[in-house]
Every structure is written in structure tokens, then in C-alpha cells.
Write a structure and sequence with these properties.
The chain has 264 residues and is mainly beta. It is 0% helix and 45% strand.
């Protein structure tokens, strides 16, 4: 984080890190800082409050059991600021622990050697493992995976979301002597949708026309969702904008209104 006058803050007494810890936070509660010690067993996480300008420890845990976590590779705070998703060599799943007290709160299934995790601003979670697919999960979901991508030799901490929250970046290479490679995984956060339209059989020039549409997706549409409509006809073979219309009642219905320039 940039600061015009950065200042060092000592970790509160009672905590000794063998190595410099990795750090993570969430925009949902930017005053909370999570620190994690990587590459040791058992792994340790600590949660600090920075609101007063220093570091006030909220909770700390060494994961010797329930769950047992060792050789931490990566971790991220969920977008709602409620949980931490952990990638470690052991166990072979991405563990989820509550930020409040670091207790177990489920897991994202992996085959072996989880080594990367990234959380999009909308809450979509991406997980990766050296011996498994890169997977994405919708906010609050741990199964089934929303998307899966076959990415071999994913690197530690090798996942990041693009600002559009749709594309996912993955870094592979190094492990077997190959050059590092950047992969762009499309539609990692995009919901598949279907659309049906109903319109009058005929229309008249200069008369208002309403087309009713219905969108479907695996999740409800947020109240602010809109659709952009383009009309293609003989006079506009490449299309002409009709307007932007809201999705009504969050259930996928949309009414498109316009005035035809010719009888149809």
C-alpha cells in the first residue's frame, strides 16, 4: 500500500515469525490485516486490527489440528471479509477458516498441493493447485465448481483476477525448467445466460412497439442489472442502438420499447 510517509510498525509482543509473513486484507473491512507464515508446519495465521493506527491482535492460530494445515503457499480474504481461503501443501484441499476466530468453515476440493487462491471484487473465488485444475466458485459456494481450467504446473501464488472480474490470469512454468508463461483464462467469472423474446406478429410505422424478454441464469440478477439492445434490419444491417433497459424485479424480465421506422 502506498503512503507519502511510510512508517514501520512492530508486531505486538507475543508473536515471533520465523519468516516474514505474507499479508492479505479485504475492501469489506480494510482495517483488518491477516498475516500468514508460509513454508513451515504447522502453518500460522494471525488477524490484526489497524483502525487505531497500530496493530492490535484480534486472534491467532497455529493449525496443528481441525484442520491441520502445513506449508502454506497462498491465502486470501473473501470479498465479504468473513472468511480466509487457504492454499497449502497439506491438506489436499483449499481450507476455509473464519476470519473472526480462525475456526474451520469448510473447504474447496482439490486433488493435491493447493498453491494459489484469488478473490474477485464480486466475491468469486479462484483456486489452483500444482496437481489439479484451476477452479472458480461463485460467492458463498464451495461445490460444484463454477468453471474449471486445465492448467499444468501452476506456480505458487500464481492466480490474479483482471479488473473486469471476468478474466483470470495464471502463471505456469519454472518447476520443470520451462519458461514462465502467462495464461489468460476467459469467462472465469461470467454467468451463462439464455434469452427468449416475445413480440407482436406485426408492427406499424410510427407506433410504439414493446418486446418482452426473459433472461435466465444460474443465479438471480442484481436489482441494478441492465441490458443493451441493438436492432438489426434492412436499413441498419450492422445494427443500431435501441437503448439500455433494466431487468425488472430481479427475475430476468425486461421490456424493450421502441418506435419502428417502417411497417413490419
Amino acid at each position: 500500500m502506498a503512503s507519502p510517509a511510510p512508517a514501520a510498525t512492530l508486531v505486538p509482543s507475543g508473536r515471533y515469525w520465523y519468516y516474514a509473513p505474507a499479508l492479505a486484507s479485504s475492501p469489506a473491512d480494510p482495517n483488518v490485516l491477516v498475516a500468514g507464515e508460509e513454508g513451515v508446519g504447522p502453518a500460522t495465521l494471525a488477524v490484526y486490527d489497524t483502525a487505531a493506527g497500530g496493530l492490535q491482535k484480534r486472534t491467532e492460530r497455529s493449525f496443528s489440528s481441525s484442520p491441520s494445515i502445513s506449508y502454506l503457499n497462498d491465502f486470501a480474504v473473501t470479498a465479504d471479509g468473513q472468511n480466509i481461503v487457504v492454499a497449502a501443501n497439506n491438506p489436499s484441499d483449499h481450507q476455509i477458516v473464519r476470519l473472526s476466530d480462525l475456526s474451520s468453515n469448510g473447504y474447496h476440493s482439490s486433488w493435491q498441493f493447493p498453491n494459489a487462491v484469488a478473490v474477485a471484487a464480486d466475491g468469486t473465488v479462484a483456486t489452483g493447485a500444482d496437481g489439479d485444475f484451476v477452479k472458480t466458485y461463485r460467492p458463498g459456494s464451495t461445490w460444484p465448481a463454477f468453471r474449471e481450467y486445465a492448467v499444468n504446473d501452476l506456480q505458487r501464488d500464481g492466480l490474479a483476477w483482471a479488473p473486469d472480474e471476468n478474466r483470470l490470469f495464471a502463471i505456469t512454468g519454472f518447476s520443470y525448467g520451462s519458461a514462465p508463461t502467462l495464461h489468460v483464462l476467459p469467462d472465469a467469472g461470467k454467468l451463462d445466460t439464455t434469452l427468449s423474446l416475445q413480440a407482436p406478429a406485426t408492427s406499424h410505422k410510427g407506433k410504439d412497439l414493446t418486446v418482452t424478454g426473459q433472461l435466465w441464469a444460474a443465479e438471480p440478477f442484481p436489482a441494478s442489472t441492465t441490458v443493451e439492445v441493438t436492432r438489426t434490419d434492412a436499413e441498419h444491417p450492422t445494427g443500431t442502438p435501441v437503448g439500455t433497459f433494466p431487468i425488472l424485479h430481479g427475475d430476468g424480465r425486461v421490456h424493450v420499447r421502441g418506435t419502428p421506422a417502417r411497417d413490419g
